[in-house]
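Hi W.,

Here's what went into the run:
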Amino acid sequence: MTAKVLIAGSWRDADSVGTFQATNPNTNEKLAADFPISSWADCDAALDAAQQAAREMRKLGPEPIAKFLECYADKIEAAKDALVEAAHAETGLPKSPRLADGELPRTSGQLRAAATSCRSGDWALATIDTAAGIRSCYEPLGPVCVFGPNNFPFAFGSVSGGDFAAAIAAGNPVIGKANSSHPETTRLFAELALAAAEETAMPRAIVQLIYRTGHADGERLVSDPRVGATGYTGSRSAGLKLKAAADAAGKPIYLELSSVNPVVLLPGALAARGTEIVDEFLTSALMGTGQFCTNPGVVLAIAGEQTDQFIESVKERFGAAPAGTLLSPAVAVSLKSSVQQLCDFGAKLLVGGGEVEAGRCAMANTLLTASGKQFLGDPEGFQTEAFGNASLIVVADDLDELCNVIASLEGNLTGCIYSDPAGGDDAAYEQVAFELTPKVGRVLNDKMPTGVAVSAAMNHGGPFPATGHPGFTAVGVPGSLLRFAKLTSFDNVRPGRLPVLLADKNPTGTTPRRIDGVWTTGDVG
Amino acid sequence: MTAKVLIAGSWRDADSVGTFQATNPNTNEKLAADFPISSWADCDAALDAAQQAAREMRKLGPEPIAKFLECYADKIEAAKDALVEAAHAETGLPKSPRLADGELPRTSGQLRAAATSCRSGDWALATIDTAAGIRSCYEPLGPVCVFGPNNFPFAFGSVSGGDFAAAIAAGNPVIGKANSSHPETTRLFAELALAAAEETAMPRAIVQLIYRTGHADGERLVSDPRVGATGYTGSRSAGLKLKAAADAAGKPIYLELSSVNPVVLLPGALAARGTEIVDEFLTSALMGTGQFCTNPGVVLAIAGEQTDQFIESVKERFGAAPAGTLLSPAVAVSLKSSVQQLCDFGAKLLVGGGEVEAGRCAMANTLLTASGKQFLGDPEGFQTEAFGNASLIVVADDLDELCNVIASLEGNLTGCIYSDPAGGDDAAYEQVAFELTPKVGRVLNDKMPTGVAVSAAMNHGGPFPATGHPGFTAVGVPGSLLRFAKLTSFDNVRPGRLPVLLADKNPTGTTPRRIDGVWTTGDVG
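Here's what came out:
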């Protein structure tokens, strides 16, 4: 029995060019269910249905869309056990607290936050210029393709996660492309979403699901004229191919590709609370077996006794800590290869690097070091992302070399700076922050990068190649909705014909609008 | 004597691979001044200097940058006569009112509006989440390359126009690439900008100017690691090449490429005020000899007596109106070729199409018609932009065919709908607007598209291929600044280290900030 795809509101046999199975990374065994690899015909049918759904959604307006999101969130919570069971089998992520108590409530919470923003319209930056007779806001862009990653089967899932929530809340239907490592989990979500669509009388094609396509069909999908935009989270190589295709067609594509998330440890921080920092680093670096987009992959410090001690402690703790299970055989292969590459570039392996007990996807917790000079000799090589439970500590001779290393970094999602709580590092902080800030989407102080709060002030984004555009965030409402929207001005448009968000009367009484330069929740005039 | 380029704060001999001269389109004679075609060495030197200037500007903060913009605006007004003289010689645009009384005050006004936004920080969407301890805002992105168009030597000029003003106000230095049709005008602006930089103690490389490069060097420039982003206004073919290069490097590029700006005339509008609409159309279509980005290139109407009469009147008036001068020999060649293409596709030439008196760049005012069926048979062909004083009227059999024609349109900057003032067309309006709105950046009622107000609610943008991204506007403050900025979150960052915009105290007392979900000009707490 091969699973059915969800196209145009029905679960139907795929027009299949092959099948695949997921693997249980805790046992290395293939899971029983077969999933289809769709041909272009499936994509084409999904695009047609999505285009029709997009038209219907434009007529419905925000309230029923918000209800759909809330209904879906309720259903996810009600189906918690089945979702956790499926995701645990497919990803090896612990059932509790990770899946059941962390990721699942985050997922339903994101959907509800998106619903609130959808209903309020606060995301659309409604702007009214009464003197010029012009009004503008952001509006839905059209069908959104979502390619979800392997590491968050719920919260970044292609039909459940942040991109899905943002795309729907902005008024667009979603065509989900499941991550091949957890197709059954994604299928369960799509069932719940379809049930929510039925219950709230939404177009059934508000959510569609295919599991996998050939590369060429994926590229064709994101560049199709019927598509509004694409959200992609995954490997840099696959993402860049999709980006090239979408860019050539003028279709926005938002990518979250890779990031080593530099953590700078200034001497005063290590002196004041080195032991705590070891604890914090350990937790952050090995959390989820290091498979977080914001995993601290590179630590930057200045040579000295405190740094030696930090390295020694981390080495011991990495060696002593149990090696978690990786998400899939592919992740294990890629991690081993990245660690090998770093060694080939000259990094020194302090601990780990090898197998743990057989029978599951895993690698020993791995710590490498390199000098600042080595890093500066091949910045690109030393920024190879080792996705998983491996980190590289780069030791610079002095502050100037540290700053040079930072200046040689690519774009990253995050950059952390630990400094003396008493202010002893303040001059160094200024130099370091000046170099680091332009390179990252989020600057942190005295705090590790994992843990991406769903906040209006969050930027889960950053300069290329961390993402495809430095101006957008993938997490946080209302900002994340703007990725899936077009700006539209209404110039001299008669009052009865304006979007409700731009009418004289504030549609909710609480929606913030910029009227003649002033943000207000009031009416015009 | 070959003109010097402005690099790293000095006027110096270009590292030149050739020279070119502009042409006076009113006489078809080459102008005396020689301008250099720069090699990569000039671009490279400009990039180094821009990178350094960007670092200095980040340290300066908004106040001196605002002062620079205001000082530059003053100098532009003081140099009005020379600027108008140069631009008239190079573009053939009338000295008055167009250049002296229209475009020049618009240009200085844009610079002052950008200064106001820079000082206020209202563009940066400062967001503070006190509970999560996260604060975010938009920050400068790095050096911006600006490629200005031929048709607005002041207001969209590479070192004077909207992109320049927005890039600088967002805190970035600009490398201007002059439009080859008005290099002397651009040189004069760069002199004024440099003088303003000196007077306000800004880094001298805040503005740099090269006149022309080879295509490969242009592509290398926009994709260089030292570049933050690029603004380009010009032809679709050159723009798409730059886009491909910038996209591949992950560098934002904002393009304004081409647009036929459909104008829909519903029957009730023609019945109620057909004569006025002829007047309005004539003014808009022939203004600036039709060389506006928002020129109404395609009129869409439904077959009937009123439409016939409209066409007849426009034909007469086009025939009777003097043919303006085109911007350059290249524009004249391209216009003739586009009109010929439209005829080849089957459009009927009603008037014009041929030469006027010799000795200047011009073509007779040109009107073509086609049926809705013809248009639907080759939508791409019939959307060939005829940049200049030519328009195409498409006559659909009925409302359904009209809507099909609209549904077949590419992305455009604007879409106008004229309808019965008494409401007789309201049902048709709803159908037409539903199809048209997703295709355009700005919807207008009962008004022609030319005249792009500098308003916070303006969107001078639209879906591809009108621009490169549907979420951004090239005109209007504060929105246009966001193109040249990166979003940055500050997570747990110590109070004294935050950007002033994100400090507890509102930096100006009037800057709007979103604090815990509410837009306010107050302080935190």
